[in-house]
From TrEMBL:
Its EC number is 5.1.3.2. Transmembrane segments: none annotated. This is UDP-glucose 4-epimerase. It catalyses: UDP-alpha-D-glucose = UDP-alpha-D-galactose. Residues 3-249 form the NAD-dependent epimerase/dehydratase domain. One of its GO terms (molecular function) is UDP-glucose 4-epimerase activity.
Length: 322
């Protein structure tokens, strides 16, 4: 018996695969490699290259590998780009999730952990987001993730699907030098690429209503995130009752300036970030409570900001050297 990790060749999915192995659990990866990397999949883990939109392929993979549950990470994850590509975003994230759920029903698989997003909240009007904070997505990406949660809920009503969804904000760091964040939009890789190329990193806005004037966000280490995905899978296997949604949040957050300071401190590259104008729509502060996940999903912040930076820097430099 094994678990299928859709998107398991991506940054987050590849860490989930490793977290399963650390618990002595087997997994199989399905990924179309549109943003994932074949080299991110550990040796010995079965790999199927294909799209989650191919329902027949998903169902065949579930049957062939005696899959007992799915961690559904695959998706189009660029919130900003989704505004320009709404149909593509809905196709990948909504139609894709329908395809996975249909394949699961066809193959008799009734357990799923869904990789959702804090983008479902939009711009909340509270200092600390909880699972009770109203959802108000502001991009096709956020909307598509919320619809994914609804699909799980409705399939549970219709067919007894056992499920939970995990929402998270800014995922950073590396749990292994073999896997790193390759997103062209995330803060950590943008800063690290700039430093590797001898450019000066930039801050967008330093006049926000925060202690140092820069935006405060939740930054969580990808390896910590992966542990909680596996804890959710194990809880579903054990028949434990889970909440429909969990936030994997830090509870306090870090400012962009604090991230920049840590980058200089840890990498040894002395720089003063360039300050540019605000980006439209960036709220002052978005931080989530992880209390429910700490109770049920072995969630905790095991890494400091310096740990996050050091692991991301080490993994990216290893890839750069290679």
């Amino acid at each position: 018996m094994s678990w299928l990790v859709t998107g398991g060749a991506g940054y987050i999915g590849a860490h989930v695969v490793r977290a399963f192995a650390e618990q002595g659990l087997t997994s199989v990866v399905l990924d179309d490699l549109s943003s994932g990397h074949r080299g991110f999949v550990p040796e010995g883990v079965p790999f199927v290259q294909g799209s989650i939109l191919d329902t027949g392929l998903v169902a065949a993979t579930l049957r062939e590998h005696a899959v007992e549950g799915v961690v559904h990470v695959a998706g189009f994850k660029y919130a900003g780009v989704s505004v320009q590509r709404p149909l593509h975003t809905y196709d990948q994230n909504v139609t894709g999730t329908v395809s996975v759920l249909r394949a699961m029903a066809d193959a008799g698989v009734d357990k799923v952990v869904f990789s959702s997003s804090a983008a479902t909240y939009g711009t909340p009007d509270v200092d600390t987001v909880t699972e009770r904070t109203p959802t108000n997505p502001e991009s096709p990406y956020g909307e598509s993730k919320l619809i994914g949660e609804w699909l799980l809920r409705d399939q549970a009503t219709a067919a007894g699907l056992r499920h939970t969804s995990v929402r998270y904000f800014n995922v950073v760091g590396s749990g292994t030098d073999e896997v790193y964040d390759t997103s062209p939009h995330n803060l950590f890789p943008l800063v690290i690429e700039a430093l590797l190329e001898g450019r000066t990193p930039r801050i967008n806005g330093d006049d926000y209503a925060t202690p140092d004037g820069t935006c405060v966000r939740d930054y969580v280490h990808v390896a910590d995130l992966a542990v909680s995905h596996v804890a959710a899978a194990q809880a579903l296997l054990a028949g434990t009752s889970l909440e429909p949604v969990y936030n994997l949040g830090s509870g306090d957050g870090l400012s962009v300036r604090q991230i920049m300071d840590a980058m200089a401190r840890v990498t040894g590259v002395d720089f003063t970030p360039e300050v540019h104008p605000r980006r439209p729509g960036d709220p002052d502060r978005i931080v989530a409570s992880g209390e429910l996940a700490a109770r049920d999903l072995d969630w905790r912040m095991r890494h400091t900001v310096d740990d996050m930076v050091a692991s991301a820097w080490r993994a990216r430099r290893a890839a750069h050297a290679g």
